[in-house]
Write a structure and sequence with these properties.
Blueprint (H helix, E strand, L loop, with lengths): L11 H14 L4 H8 L3 H10 L17 H15 L1
Helix pairs in contact: 1-2, 1-3, 2-3
Length: 83
């Protein structure tokens, strides 16, 4: 009896999962990690999210552009003070 076995190369995010974890734990941004290993930040995010050792610490990602999150928090604080 014969069986066909199909294989494929790992996806990009699977290849970089090991490389992306340590810099993220050291505090590097997704964009900086992506630049260092020549992929985009979306691929880095996906690699960290799907890594077998993924933890909440690795996935702590602020998706807002730099500066917008702080402005949003300021507005929310002002609203809370008014109430």
């Amino acid at each position: 009896m014969e069986f066909a076995v199909f294989t494929h190369e790992p996806f990009g995010f699977q290849r970089i999962a090991g490389e992306a974890g340590r810099p993220r734990r050291l505090g590097m941004s997704l964009r900086a990690i992506g630049s260092a290993i020549e992929v985009d930040e979306k691929t880095v995010r996906k690699a960290l999210r799907n890594a077998p050792h993924a933890s909440v610490e690795l996935l702590n990602v602020d998706l807002a552009p730099v500066g917008i999150g702080e402005e949003r928090r300021r507005k929310e604080r002002k609203k809370a003070e008014v109430r």
